[in-house]
C-alpha cells in the first residue's frame, strides 16, 4: 500500500484540544468555565463555591488519580467520555503537587535517600528540576486523557524588566520556567483573560512583547469577547 500522499489533506479540526487560559485573580476565569456545557471543572484551590457547574474538588495527586481512574472506567464501560471538556483549575496548584511528588520520588532513590530538604528544587545546580519535569510530564499526560478537549487555567505572573531605562511589566503564566515551556508546547492555544475599560470579559490570543499568548490558525492574533462558540466553532456546529 502506497503511503505517500498525492493530494493535500484538508484540516480536520479547528478547535484547540488543549486550551490554556490565564489572567489576574478574580477576573472571572472560573465563572467563564461554568458557562461551558458538558465541562467538568477540577477545582484545586476551592474556588468554585460561588458557581453552579459540574465540579469536583481535588486536593492532591492521589485524589486526582482516583478521578482519572473513574473517568477511564466510564469510558471503557460506557463507550465514551462522561464530559466533552475537562478544565483543570488551576495548573499552578497542580505543579505544586508535582513538586511534592518529585521530592518523594527523589528521596526514594539511592542518591536521594539522605536528602533532608522539603523540596527537590533546593538541590544544587538545578538538579531537582529534572525530577519536577518528570513528575509533571507523567501526570499531565493523564490530564490529556480525561476528555476530548482540555482547558487549563493558570495564575498570572507579572515581571518587571528594564528596557532602555524604562520599566516594562510583562505578563506570563505563573509556573516554573521549564514547566511553563512544557505546557506551552502541549497547548494549541494560550489566551490572556482580562476585562476591557467597560468591564467586559475578553480573551487575547495576540502575542505581544509584554504578554505571553498564541494559538493555531483560527485564533491566531485574535482578541475576542469571552465566548465559547468563538473558541470552539466545531463543537458548537454539532
What's the short version?
With 238 residues, the chain is an alpha/beta fold. It has a single domain (18-236), classed as Rossmann fold (3-Layer(aba) Sandwich), CATH 3.40.50. It has helices spanning 29-34, 61-78, 91-107, 128-143, 177-186, 228-231, 233-236, and strands at 18-23, 39-43, 54-57, 85-89, 149-163, 166-173, 189-195, 201-204, 214-215, 223-225.
Tell me what you see in this structure.
By secondary structure, the protein is an alpha/beta fold. The chain has a single domain, classed as 3-Layer(aba) Sandwich (Rossmann fold), CATH 3.40.50. The protein is 32% helix and 25% strand. The protein is built from 7 helices and 10 strands. It has helices at residues 29-34, 61-78, 91-107, 128-143, 177-186, 228-231, 233-236, and strands spanning 18-23, 39-43, 54-57, 85-89, 149-163, 166-173, 189-195, 201-204, 214-215, 223-225. Strands 1, 2, 3, 4, 5, 6, 7, 8, 9 and 10 form a 10-stranded mixed β-sheet that branches. Helix 3 (91-107) crosses helix 4 (128-143). The two termini are 34 Å apart. The relative contact order is 0.18. Residues 165-169 have low confidence and may be disordered.
Furnish the topology, listing elements before pairings:
Elements (H helix, E strand, L loop, with lengths): L17 E6 L5 H6 L4 E5 L10 E4 L3 H18 L6 E5 L1 H17 L20 H16 L5 E15 L2 E8 L3 H10 L2 E7 L5 E4 L9 E2 L7 E3 L2 H4 L1 H4 L2
Parallel strand pairs: 1-5, 1-7, 2-3, 2-4, 4-5
Antiparallel strand pairs: 5-6, 7-8, 7-9, 8-10
Helix pairs in contact: 3-4
Amino acid at each position: 500500500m502506497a503511503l505517500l500522499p498525492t493530494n493535500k489533506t484538508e484540516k480536520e479540526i479547528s478547535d484547540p484540544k488543549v486550551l490554556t487560559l490565564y489572567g489576574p485573580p478574580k477576573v472571572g476565569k472560573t465563572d467563564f468555565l461554568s458557562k461551558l456545557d458538558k465541562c467538568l471543572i477540577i477545582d484545586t484551590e476551592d474556588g468554585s463555591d460561588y458557581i453552579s457547574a459540574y465540579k469536583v474538588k481535588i486536593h492532591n495527586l492521589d485524589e486526582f488519580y482516583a478521578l482519572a481512574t473513574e473517568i477511564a472506567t466510564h469510558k471503557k464501560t460506557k463507550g465514551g467520555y462522561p464530559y466533552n471538556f475537562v478544565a483543570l483549575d488551576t495548573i499552578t496548584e497542580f505543579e505544586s503537587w508535582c513538586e511534592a511528588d518529585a521530592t518523594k520520588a527523589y528521596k526514594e532513590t539511592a542518591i536521594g535517600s539522605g536528602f533532608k530538604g522539603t523540596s527537590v528544587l533546593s538541590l544544587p545546580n538545578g538538579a531537582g528540576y529534572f525530577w519536577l519535569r518528570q513528575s509533571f510530564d507523567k501526570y499531565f499526560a493523564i490530564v490529556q486523557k480525561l476528555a476530548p478537549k482540555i482547558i487549563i487555567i493558570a495564575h498570572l505572573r507579572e515581571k518587571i524588566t528594564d528596557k532602555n531605562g524604562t520599566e516594562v511589566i510583562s505578563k506570563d503564566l505563573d509556573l516554573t520556567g521549564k514547566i511553563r515551556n512544557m505546557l506551552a508546547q502541549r497547548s494549541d492555544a494560550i489566551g490572556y483573560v482580562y476585562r476591557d475599560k467597560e468591564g467586559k470579559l475578553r480573551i487575547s490570543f495576540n502575542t505581544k512583547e509584554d504578554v505571553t499568548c498564541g494559538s493555531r490558525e483560527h485564533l491566531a492574533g485574535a482578541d475576542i469577547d469571552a465566548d465559547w462558540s468563538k473558541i470552539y466553532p466545531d463543537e458548537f456546529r454539532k
